[in-house]
Every structure is written in structure tokens, then in C-alpha cells.
Amino acid sequence: MQTSALPDLAHTDAKPVHWLATATAMAAVVALAGMLQPDAATATASASEHRVTTQQGAAPPAKAPDPAGAAFPLDCGASGRTVADSAPGDLDGDGEPETVAVVHCAAGSGTPPQGIYVLTQRSGAAPRVVATLVDPAQKLTVTDFTVRDGLVSATLLGYSSTDVPRCCPDERESATWEWKGNAFVRSTGSGGSAARAA
Question: Percent of the chain beyond pLDDT 70?
């Protein structure tokens, strides 16, 4: 066996005094950490409790009105109504979502004219129509319908005369509605006009 050229290190020949000194030092570190820990733990628990309280105390986000429960101003007789499309959005910036619905009379064939309606709902009440953006009496079909960033957008397909077959609209217009003041204002490529409020 070859001996090391280095002198013996003190810890290679540990005596009971050495272990006692090490244990005392470790106990001091643990005690010091224990005295500091409760404050940090209390602060963490308080922050956590605050976060839980805030989440539980906050009102749940409002639900947009369901168009299935609304009475639309559309006379369809016995055929009934069809909600072709709908989308939620906060249109007036009050933090409560509205629903915009594209509705037409149920038809076995053909392309029935459609209406675009804005719905609101108070707590516990049924959804109600507060604005008509497109009236079915205008004999238009709605495509490319979206609700985004407070704007309602759609492409409106129509007919230049009664001679045009109802299957094949020959007029096309892009329209956007935005809440301004106390009414929805419609804008198109050729200018804008105010929408009728219900």
C-alpha cells in the first residue's frame, strides 16, 4: 500500500469533540431557520387566503342571453322560427354581454329573409330584443356574421327586383353596426345610416 504524500486531514480522524461541535452548529442553524420561518409561512398563508377570498367573493361572469328563450318580433305563423346563428359580445361597454342573433322563419325550402336582433337579459328575466339591426321585411339573407370588439359585422345578400329568383341574390353589401350614444349605427362601404331600435 502506498502512503499519501499529503499530511493527514483533521476530519479524517474524527474525535467525539469534532462530532459534538458539528452537531451543535447544525442545531443552531436549524433553530435560526425555525425562528425565521413562521413569519414567511404566515405571509404566504395570508396571501393565499386573500386570493381564495377574492375569487370566492367575486361575482361569476355574466352569461350572455340565450336566444332560444327570446320572443322575436317575427310573424312566422305555424311554421315557427329558427335561430340560424348567434354570438355574444359586450356591445355597449357596460361589462354585461349581449347576444346578437340571426333569425328567420322556418321554411321547408327556399331562402327565407332573415333578421338580426340584439338581446339583453336582466337577472331572473327572459332575454328580450332591444334592437333590430336587419328587419326581415327588408328581404335580406345574412352571411359572414361575426361579433367582435363591440362590432357586429355581416354580409347582406339581397335582390335588385322581384324578377330575380329568390334562390339567387344579385346584390351584396358588407355592413357593420356599432353602439354610439343611444343607438346602433350602421356603416357600409357607401356610407352609414342609423339602425332602428326596438
Answer: 65
